[in-house]
Amino acid sequence: MKRMIAIVLTLGLLAGCQKKTETQQQAQTAPPPSPAETSPAKNTNERQKPAMRPSDARVTVDPVNVSKGQKGNFQIKYQGVETAKAIVVPLQVPAGMKLDSASFGGSIIAYLANKPVRINNELHTILMAAIPVTEPRIPPKEGLLATVYFTMSPDAVSGNIKETFVPPGNYLSYVDTTNTLVEPYFEGGQVTVK
User: Fold this and answer.
1) 3-state helix, strand, coil in the chain (%, to 5)
2) DSSP 8-state assignment for residue 134
3) Tell me: the pLDDT tens digits for 87-107?
């Protein structure tokens, strides 16, 4: 049963990646949507957050100090309070930050084989997940979750790294051992551009 849940979570994330690619291809040939089509009021069903149990677990993004046009990185830290079957972390970065890659080296989830990452520099988002399939579940410990590498544009301005929604249904969350969707506390990082 555990393996089936992990496979379903993985397929959902990967299906979202495929749908994003198809949507981008369609968007290149379609006219841009009107403001009315993209307003939150029109998308309430699509963006309605599922019921999640609140948790004392934490996802924290370190602050960033970087010069315009320079490369840099930021770390995402996780403090677990219970064993998790999966973790999903969707983030949005300031518009002048071009995301290059993510690394799990030295992180508390480095042992997992299934750590999909999806970067969308048009929407300024990164979606990361950690899903044990045959490995032990994610332990309730504190440490590095991932390091994200980026390049600042020459016209970048300061902003924040914040949690976001990434379609088709990815919210900041983890799955506990009873298969309940749980919402950790989030603390975003300030990006200061010099």
Assistant:
1) 20, 40, 40
2) S
3) 999 999 999 999 999 999 999
